[in-house]
Write a structure and sequence with these properties.
alpha/beta, six-stranded mixed β-sheet, three-stranded mixed β-sheet
């Protein structure tokens, strides 16, 4: 899972990314790795892994992970190649979802690129560049489809879809807001449209705003705008996130309690991103390793097995499954087996969040 972080200058984007990379660096079991200078990998928060690790006296705990990409270079005219326009757009195309940092705080020491604070204007600046880029993509594809139509009438369906998307884009409506049938969904997926990607808005507020963040005027404006776009909004204070990311677990917990927060904004962002992309985790547990595996919701058991190894999928026989909650309630796998709580599931079983699995296979 790869999330692209975008934003105008001086909105807190780079500080947030620094917090993410620090959090990754502090993750003992999945250390931060630099794939490129602007890519950070962090663990998906999952308290179940530690509890399973203690139960199995495991040697290694491996969480699911998410990649964050710090996408720099956006200015007005990026879609026309201004600034680092082409590089910006190519980086953003490679992501699964987009997290846009929006400035919602006042600070005379931090100059806004447009002079004053207006989160909706900032959002529209970025969204317009993505829309312009998508219009260009749609027009090029339509030109090609019209040429192919002379030889094959099946391209008419694609042309109709492209015209529908173009009309929406020209009216400022992102591609993700349109309704598609199953065939259209497949065609849209192949277009890699920027405005079809899931969106999360990160409302960057000051520490003082956090106390009554839901009633904050700037945050409310972002939430109202996001509702129309079917997008998520996460209010957080990037400065606090940077501080939290440098603390050990006990100090971090103490600071969160002092601030009246249940978890860090970064943890919320990771979980929301996971859910936004329709992802879930199944677990494997034993003495050598306890591990979370990322799959799409609705994945069947053999395909989930393929996440571990292609041979397990190819030779799939059955899956022994117990839910995490049931195992914790019984206290051990031995007791769970004695009560008949470990189920045998076949090829048509759809995996559920928190399934603890042992795949049986023969190659």
């Amino acid at each position: 899972m790869k999330i692209g972080i975008v934003g105008l200058p001086n909105v807190g984007k780079s500080t947030l990314f620094n917090s993410i990379t620090k959090a990754g660096a502090e993750c003992a079991n999945y250390p931060f790795c630099t794939i490129e200078p602007n890519v950070g990998v962090v663990a998906v928060p999952d308290e179940r892994l530690e509890k399973l690790g203690k139960m199995y006296n495991t040697q290694k705990i491996t969480p699911a992970v998410v990649e964050f990409v710090d996408i720099a270079g956006l200015v007005k005219g990026a879609s026309k190649g201004e600034g680092l326009g082409n590089k910006f757009l190519s980086h953003i195309r490679e992501t699964d979802a987009i997290a846009e940092v929006v400035r919602c705080f006042e600070d005379s020491n931090v100059v806004h690129v447009d002079g004053d604070i207006d989160p909706i204007r900032d959002i529209q600046t970025i969204n317009l560049e993505l829309i312009f880029a998508d219009i260009e993509t749609v027009e090029k594809r339509m030109e090609k489809a019209k040429k192919m139509l002379k030889a094959d009438k099946k391209y008419q369906a694609e042309i109709d879809l492209l015209e529908k998307i173009k009309l929406a884009l020209e009216n400022g409506i992102p591609a993700r807001n349109l309704e598609y049938n199953e065939d259209e969904k497949e065609m849209v997926k192949e277009m890699f449209l920027l405005t079809n990607k899931p969106f999360i808005y990160i409302a960057n507020v000051s520490e003082s705003q956090l106390e009554n963040v839901q009633s904050d005027g700037y945050v409310q404006k972002v939430q109202e705008y996001a509702k129309q776009e079917k997008a998520e909004v996460i209010p957080l204070c990037v400065k606090i996130e940077e501080e939290l990311s440098s603390l050990d677990d006990s100090d971090k917990k103490e600071m969160l309690e002092a601030l009246g927060l249940k978890e860090s904004g970064l943890d919320t962002l990771i979980k929301k991103s996971y859910d936004l992309l329709g992802l879930m985790s199944f677990l494997t547990a034993g003495e050598p390793e306890v591990r979370a595996w990322t799959i799409k919701k609705g994945t069947k058991a053999p395909n989930a097995a393929g996440k571990i190894h292609s041979d397990i999928e190819r030779g799939f026989i059955k899956a022994e499954i117990i839910s995490y909650d049931e195992l914790m309630k019984e206290g051990s796998m031995v007791q769970a087996r004695e009560k008949g709580l470990v189920r045998q599931e076949g090829k048509d079983y759809i995996m559920q969040e928190g399934d603890i699995v042992l795949f049986k296979f023969n190659v």
